[in-house]
């Protein structure tokens, strides 16, 4: 077990400092500001007028940061587990925060004659 002075989080998963703490604060306390910053940084996404649903790090889940299969589950894409394993080695990638985007406008148009899987 690490000595207390070397731990990055307390028993509730709350970070003590740096970017981990900032991500926790913004995802849980300042989502509007975080969403605005993300959309300002990604104008092509902003054009779709999406709603961002922040899924990690959530206080109710002890600020868990996901990778591998749990990451895909957190973003609603668990079926991509094999593809991710073939592309990226186990243990990565990792992100400070995760959000899913729901566009106000359709991202693509699909003709009626094409069956969706």
Characterization of the model:
With 117 residues, the chain is an alpha+beta fold. The protein has one domain. Helix content is 35%, strand content 9%. The chain is built from five helices and two strands. The protein has helices spanning 18-29, 31-41, 43-46, 68-74, 81-87; strands at residues 51-56, 98-102. The chain has a two-stranded antiparallel sheet with strand order 1-2. The chain is globular. The termini are far apart. The model has no long low-confidence stretch (mean pLDDT 84).
Any descriptors?
alpha+beta, two-stranded antiparallel ribbon, 5 helices, globular, 117 residues, 2 strands
Short description:
Helices cover 35% and strands 9% of the residues.
Secondary-structure topology with pairs:
Elements (H helix, E strand, L loop, with lengths): L17 H12 L1 H11 L1 H4 L4 E6 L11 H7 L6 H7 L10 E5 L15
Antiparallel strand pairs: 1-2
Order of helices and strands: HHHEHHE
Our measurement of the CA-to-CA distance between the termini, rounded to an integer number of angstroms, reads 48 Å
Unreliable spans are: none
What's the arrangement of strands in the largest beta sheet? 1-2
How many H/I helices? 5
Class derived from helix and strand content = alpha+beta
């Amino acid at each position: 077990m690490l000595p207390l002075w070397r731990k990055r989080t307390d028993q509730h998963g709350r970070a003590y400092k740096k970017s981990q703490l900032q991500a926790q604060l913004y995802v849980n306390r300042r989502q509007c500001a975080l969403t605005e910053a993300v959309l300002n940084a990604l104008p092509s996404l902003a054009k779709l007028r999406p709603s961002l649903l922040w899924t990690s790090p959530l206080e109710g889940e002890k600020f868990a940061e996901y990778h591998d299969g749990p990451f895909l589950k957190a973003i609603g894409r668990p079926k991509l587990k094999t593809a991710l394993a073939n592309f990226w080695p186990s243990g990565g990638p990792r992100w400070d925060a995760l959000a899913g985007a729901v566009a106000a406008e359709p991202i693509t148009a699909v003709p009626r004659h094409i069956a969706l899987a």
